[in-house]
Amino acid sequence: MKFPKLSNLPKLKLKAASLDARKARSGYLFVLPFLIGILAIYLPILLDSVWFSFNDLKYSADGISLVPVGFEYYQLAFKTETFTTALLNSLQTLLFQVPAILIFSLFIAVILNQKMLGRAMFRAIFFVPVIISTGLMDTISMMDVSQDMVDSSMEGVMSGTGQEGSSSAGDLFSAMDVAVLLNYLPIGASMVEFVVQLVNSVFDIVNYSGVQMLIFLAGLQSISPSIYEACQIEGATAWETFWKVTFPMISPMILVNAFYTIIDSFTRDTSEVMQFISGYVATGGASMRTAMSWIYFLIVFLIIAVVGGILSSFIFYQRRD
Amino acid sequence: MESTPIITKETKNRLVVDYEGKLSFKERLLRKLKTSNTWIKVLINIFRFIFMLGVSYVIIYPFISKIANSFMTVGDIVDTTVIFIPKNFTTEIYRYIFTENHYLEAFFNTVLLSLMCAIIQTFIAAIVGYGIAKFKFKGNKIVSAFVIITMVIPHSALELALIQHFTNFDIFQVISWNYPSILELITGGPLKLQGTFWPMAILSFCGLGFKNGLYIYMMRQFFKGVPDELEESAYVDGSGVFRTFFQIILPLSVPMMITIFLFAFSWQWTDGFYTEIFFMNQDTVRLMPDVYQNIPKSLATDFSGTTLYNSVIRNTAGLMIIAPLLVVYLFCQKYLVQGIERSGLVG
Predict the structure, then answer these.
(1) Domains and CATH numbers, chain B
(2) Which of B59, B216, B312 is closest, CB to CB, to A129?
(3) How large is the ipTM?
(4) CA-nearest residue of chain B to A147?
(5) Distance CA A130, CA A218 (A)
(6) Residues B110 and B279 sit within 8 Å (Cβ to Cβ)
(7) Which tens digit of pLDDT belongs to each residue from A208-266?
């Protein structure tokens, strides 16, 4: 048996390293546009924005001038009760909505992955919300709601059920219908309210889970059919197959989707805090808005870190090689 | 009793197995119906179909109701007895939005802007995604982290700074408010980019546009799924890094790129944040999100149902904004699912 000469080894190593270095250099070229963007545009904007939140903005003829105030606006933000309640409410909705969206979108993705009557049609319909998910329609219905509030505060509570019935055209059922339906059942008013809320958020959940469905579907498609074949041969039921094969294989997607859902539901324009921030005009104005945005961002970041930490310990990664 | 299957040798390499023996079709059908499994399957199928139909209804219902409302007159909208089918059919809402809200102008401007952004963003996402996925350069992790950061930071936090930067655009000026920089010395002052397409073009080109972090991330995941052997064999054959990318990898990723193009196009189309920041003056450049913000003067009413009517008008405008997108979607949705299917977005 012949061993390679020792003198050959460093040479080989050197060659490999230089190839890697060459490749690495072209790597820089590929990410160059993004790198320039980060260094020349994004970071300056980011720093500016942070800096604004520590300053008082004064608009004058030649642009804006800044007066440093330190942490004043951050303290003020936490003292503003409307802001903190909006934050808490957002967290509450998140707690309810994220698991609901995840479960729903996984469920639908599993169904859309099966062979069934009209699958192509259902796929086309289910991904419509993806296309319009930036919430133009939401913004419009928000405008309606605020207009309604202005009107009703001016004119008092208008009579006329017609107005109530169809002004919430975006809602699946008007709250009235559900309330009327449930009034015949012997349950309390708070229960009725809860069901109405649930029904209306079902609409939200369906409309906000388009992208997640798409990602889950992609994940499902990437599971090798031979595993399912093996399951069938071993005599596993569909239920067992789902929990022992599909679920672990899809678990990385659950993490991705959890991140996406949290980010999406926090930064969407219709979320309560975002609305509060963009509508804020009282003391501090623009600086205060920026400060509140940063507080919000830090909270979102914290939540993502916690959720990521918890979820990633449950995730099963298939070794690909 | 089951008869043993009859196996005959048809040709040299082919066996034919006749499982059913002499059973007729009717007999086979009857036997199948007798097992409970079949019935459960049929029940599940029916239940599943109805469930999907129900959820589809939830998705489609708002559109149907909005379309129905859009053809109504004020009287019909206030009238509670009118549901879905208008008594006095009219297209006046559409007509006035067309003429008084400058729909066509907004449409063409938005087509231009969205096409430009979508093309640049798709291409840049592909390049950057490829760079992050396949090259182990120093700082790769940092770049990836920044991709995530651009996704996570809410854009309202950056609103003011964005406006500041692009009204007086100066790429060499790192902190924007106090000292003159190189560009200012050359051009004699910062560039005024407010009200032009340039801010969006620059942001797209740097992969910082609307939701671009997500596109880069998707591209990265896609390229991670492409086996390294493909490129290695290309390198061995003497093709350079860029040639390999453009001639081998890029054609491979067309389905994914169509998906991202569709996302970029439609999200840019309905985006109100960046358009509001960069096109503050609606009269210079009219864009789609401006269409729903004003109520056409000819449609203004003094009836008690004004609020309701205005909301119907706004919703109709919204429908008109979305309609071209839906047409595009109908043609591209096949690719959307396909691209995602092939992406193998597994982390």
Answers:
(1) 101-291 (1.10.3720.10)
(2) B59
(3) 0.74
(4) B307
(5) 15
(6) no
(7) 888 888 888 877 877 888 889 999 899 888 889 999 888 888 887 888 888 888 888 87
